[in-house]
Specification:
Distance between the termini: 56 Å
Order of helices and strands: HHHHHHHHHH
Low-confidence stretches: none
CATH class of the largest domain: Mainly Alpha
Radius of gyration: 20 Å
Number of domains: 2
Helix content: over 70%
Shape: elongated
Largest sheet: none
Mean pLDDT: 92
Number of strands: 0
CATH topology of the largest domain: Tetracycline Repressor, domain 2
Number of helices: 10
CATH superfamily of the largest domain: Tetracycline Repressor, domain 2
Strand content: under 5%
């Protein structure tokens, strides 16, 4: 979209609609399976109109991933060194579950990108994500060294939290096939609280 003047209300609305449609299509079909025609149809716009805002599906995918990475990193950023260690870790788990509940399509978009080798966000993973995880792993290790939580591998602790929270979004169809109408998050939160409180008890 031309950047020589501020976008109008209609332009903002169309851009939002395009990204919402792209998220739906990418989450369902992955990057390779998605097409500009599918995204245009989902957005209710013509293909030329869509291409006025985004020149390619790569541009739409990159815009979504840029927005998503901040959402993904925020819960870990909130881990507070001044707080009670177990309470901070439990709050982090709750935040990750909430993201899975509220943003399942975004979670699947991110998972699809990772499964493909992260060709579009490899730099961000190696830079932003690694820096943050290194910092928080050091914090976890310091709590362990102080005897405030049990000693476990700090990186694998983080990985396990990702796996056990993001599963509910990334494998949503499988979860619902097994649980039926039951809300999986109602059982997930107390289960994970029990699991990690026992694991981390000093």
């Amino acid at each position: 979209m031309p950047q020589d003047r501020a976008p109008t209300r209609i332009q903002k609305k169309n851009r939002t609609a395009i990204l919402e449609a792209a998220l739906t299509v990418f989450a369902a079909r992955g990057f390779r399976g998605a097409t500009v025609d599918q995204i245009a149809a989902e957005a209710g716009l013509s293909k030329p109109n869509l291409l006025y805002y985004f020149p390619s599906k790569e541009a739409m995918h990159n815009a979504l991933l840029e927005q998503l990475l901040d959402t993904w990193l925020d819960p870990l950023r909130s881990l507070d060194e001044k707080g009670d260690p177990q309470s901070e870790i439990m709050a982090y788990i709750e935040r990750k579950l909430q993201i899975s509940r509220d943003y399942p399509r975004e979670s699947r978009l991110f998972a699809n990108e990772i499964v493909q080798g992260a060709p579009r966000i490899q730099d961000a993973l190696s830079r932003d994500l690694k820096t943050l995880v290194d910092e928080k792993a050091a914090l976890l290790q310091s709590w362990m060294d102080q005897g405030r939580i049990a000693k476990v591998h700090p990186y694998h602790l983080v990985f396990s939290i990702w796996a056990l929270t993001q599963h509910y979004a990334d494998f949503e169809v499988q979860v619902h096939a097994i649980l039926g109408e039951e809300d999986p998050y109602e059982g997930a939160e107390p289960f994970l609280e029990t699991l990690y409180s026992r694991l981390l008890a000093p």
